[in-house]
Amino acid sequence: MKVAVIGGDKRMLFAARAFLKDGCEVSISGFDNLMSMCDIRVMDIPDAVRWADIIVLPVRPISGNYLNCPFSADKTELDELMKIIGDKPVFSGCADHLKQYTDCMVFDYASREDFTYRNAELTAEAALGIILNDYECSVFGSECLVLGFGRIGKILSRCLKALNADVTVAARKLSDRSLIAVEGMNPVSYDEIEYDKYDIIFNTVPAAVVKDHDIDRMRENVFIIDLASTPGGVDFDAVKKRGLSCVHALSLPGKTAPLSAGIIIKDTIISMIKEEKVGKDKTRLCDDRLLLHLG
Fold first, then answer.
1. 115-253 sits in which CATH class?
2. Bond into 253 cis (ω within 30)
3. Where does the pLDDT of residue 65 fall: very low under 50, low under 70, confident under 90, or very high at 90 and above?
4. pLDDT digits (tens, 9 = 90+) for 228-248
5. Lower CB count within 10 Å: N or C terminus of the chain?
6. Which pLDDT score is estimated for 295?
7. What pLDDT is recorded for position 291?
8. Residue extents of the structural domains in the chain
């Protein structure tokens, strides 16, 4: 199987290496300063697309109307790229964002549970790393608030509890609040939050949940980490106005654990190919070339 890994950040380099280790032929594109990478072919994007059996795009594939290639000075228009790709299988994160550029099927590895839970572990770990490095007090015994009890919220709150923090978790669902209580943490609904209680606040909700009047009630020495994707869930203007410590921590797995994140991307795509071969006779992934090295 020939895999073209195109664009993205450092984790895509490690994804390419992981595909090679699994026995695939691999090319990499979109990294200007990369001259060689052992047995991985360094190619320009059009040549890589023509050469490959499958195309692997970044977790966040789009920057404006261009392919997300932060390590390349050249800009690749997405509509032109998708024309070159034609009907070859494309694996990408945020696949819905690519629909305006192509009628072909794009397989979204970032929407799968096996990807999202493993990625959430890396995100939670990285968030703890920020606190341990940048917060000037101890996590032990601190009052922590976690907004949201999704994948990241679950893992993060449990890690904080393991560090003997006093953890409060805000969740909308009564069932989630019941589970939070069972796990020995403090459950609250969003309208019950007492923002003046907390030393550290983590937001995992991709919506505007922390507004200016909430920020007005926070302690002067509070430390805020927003883990939600752009534009985040915190009113950053209000935070800046008060001079509070706040980090909008985006794409943490790619920054703090790119090797592990790259392996997760590879593992997820290989699982998708195997499942499609077994269960969906009408998909292009039934092409035997895609299982040549998968056993």
1. alpha beta
2. no
3. confident
4. 988 999 999 999 999 999 999
5. C
6. 42
7. 47
8. 2-111+258-291, 115-253
pLDDT at 270 over 60: yes
User: What distance separates the 2 farthest-apart alpha carbons in the chain?
Assistant: 61
The answer to whether the CB of 93 falls within 8 A of the CB of 61 is yes
Cα angle: 161, vertex 164, 169; to 5 degrees: 35
Q: Which residues contact 279 (CB under 8 A, 6 or more apart)?
A: none
Q: What angle is formed at CA 94 by the lines to CA 22 and CA 226, rounded to 5 degrees?
A: 105
CATH number for the domain formed by residue range(s) 2-111+258-291: 3.40.50.720
Token pair in block for residue 40: 């991985």
For residue 28, what are the CA distances in angstroms to 5, 8, 35, 49, 93?
5, 10, 10, 10, 17
pLDDT of residue 278: 41
